Amino acid sequence: MTYCLGICTHEGLIMASDSRSNAGYDQVNLCRKMHTFVMPDERAFVILTSGSVSLTQSVITLLREDFNAGEGLAKVPTPYAASRVVGEAVRRVSDLDRAHLEKDDFSFNINLLLGGQVKGSRSGLYLVYPQGNPLSATQDSPYLQIGECKYGRPILDRGIVHGSTPLEVAALYGLLSFDAAMRSNVTVGPPIEMLIYRNDSLHFDGYRSFPADDPELLSIHRQWERALRKAVEDLPKIHFNACLPGH
């Protein structure tokens, strides 16, 4: 499976993805889900993918071919227009493969996150659905997830505020979101890839890959668990009645 996350703040974007594409008792496959499209000082996009690897590979291949030919993501004037280009690529692959998949009872399973900026426009973060339509992150909903979302969501709801969360702090929230997902779901796993994009830089300002034994990842994991347990232990104690009412 997959967990991918995009966070949008007043300072820029955090984009992160795991690398596990399948998990079972005797099979674990790794696959990169982060793909960048950059023209320095003009535009920078990153796409995160979830779903069928064969489908996401086809979509990324179409987008890459167009980009290298100066079309598609290389020409769009805004991130919204970029999300529409990505959606069109999804529909092209759907036209090729959906009927054949559904004939054999397989679903057309693909979702993508797109983040980035074009010179002269604002940065943007979008989720592109299997039908090709995009959904934008907003100030009220400043993050988007695809894949195994539920375990990594609560800390984001509590911590991410579009107008005040610094980008470096958003990166920590993102990493802790992955920590929660990996702790509770075996289908999410390292390496965790993370990109940081600062508004108007038109290039990616930082990249990290966190393997399972990364010292920084392990340190953050241990410190967070200790801090969380201490916070719970320091809460006011619950006062219980002596017995059930009526007994």
Account of the 3D structure:
With 247 residues, this protein is of the alpha+beta class. It has a single domain, classed as Aminohydrolase, N-terminal nucleophile (Ntn) domain (Glutamine Phosphoribosylpyrophosphate, subunit 1, domain 1). The protein has helices spanning 53-68, 79-103, 153-159, 167-184, 215-233, and strands at residues 3-9, 12-17, 20-23, 28-30, 34-39, 43-51, 110-118, 124-128, 134-136, 143-147, 192-198, 206-210. The strands form three sheets. It has a five-stranded antiparallel β-sheet, covered by helices on one side. It has a five-stranded antiparallel β-sheet with strand order 5-6-7-8-9. Helix 1 (53-68) packs across helix 2. It is globular, with a radius of gyration of 20 Å. The termini are far apart.
The main sheet orders its strands as: 10-1-2-11-12
Write the H/E string, N to C.
EEEEEEHHEEEEHHEEH
Largest sheet: 5 strands, antiparallel
Our measurement of the CA-to-CA distance between the termini, rounded to an integer number of angstroms, reads: 50 Å
Key words describing this protein structure:
single chain, 247 residues, alpha+beta, Glutamine Phosphoribosylpyrophosphate, subunit 1, domain 1, five-stranded antiparallel β-sheet, 5 helices, 34% helix, Peptidase, Ntn_hydrolases_N, UCP009120_prtse
